[in-house]
Design goal:
Structural class: mainly beta
Order of helices and strands: EEEEEEEEEEE
Radius of gyration: 13 Å
Shape: globular
Helix content: under 10%
Largest sheet: 7 strands, mixed
Number of helices: 0
């Protein structure tokens, strides 16, 4: 069993930065591919960034490339999402998701993932 707890969300002006953290309980964190999703108001959840269990492979959705960076520290059971140059279109609830036993995934089906965090709100004002 694993629990994921996100933090770091908040209200920021356009052009600002936030760093989201997702801390996992359990001792097998390095066996999970970790991803960040977001759900803007009134829209479907979308995959934002993905990282392999070693951290050597990453992927970003086109709209955040060059602005967001995903990373992980397996010793601290943590995955981060550094978000720079934020704009109002980035406003959403951000979730981390874990898939056990998979090196890397870009699967967008929520049911595919083993665990989900509770989400953290990011609001970008113009």
């Amino acid at each position: 069993q694993m629990q994921l707890v996100e933090s770091g969300g908040g209200l920021v002006q356009a052009g600002g930065s936030l760093r989201l953290s997702c801390v996992a309980s359990g001792r097998t964190f390095s066996s999970y591919a970790m991803n960040w999703f977001r759900q803007p108001p009134g829209k479907e959840r979308e995959l934002v960034a993905a990282i392999s269990w070693s951290g050597s492979t990453t992927w970003y959705t086109e709209s955040v490339k060059g602005r967001f960076t995903i990373s992980r520290d397996n010793a601290k059971n943590t995955v981060l999402l550094q978000m720079n140059s934020l704009n109002p279109e980035d406003t959403a609830v951000y979730y981390c998701a874990a898939k056990f036993g998979t090196y890397f995934t870009r699967n967008t089906d929520a049911k595919y993932y083993t665990y989900w965090g509770q989400g953290t709100q990011v609001t970008v004002s113009s």
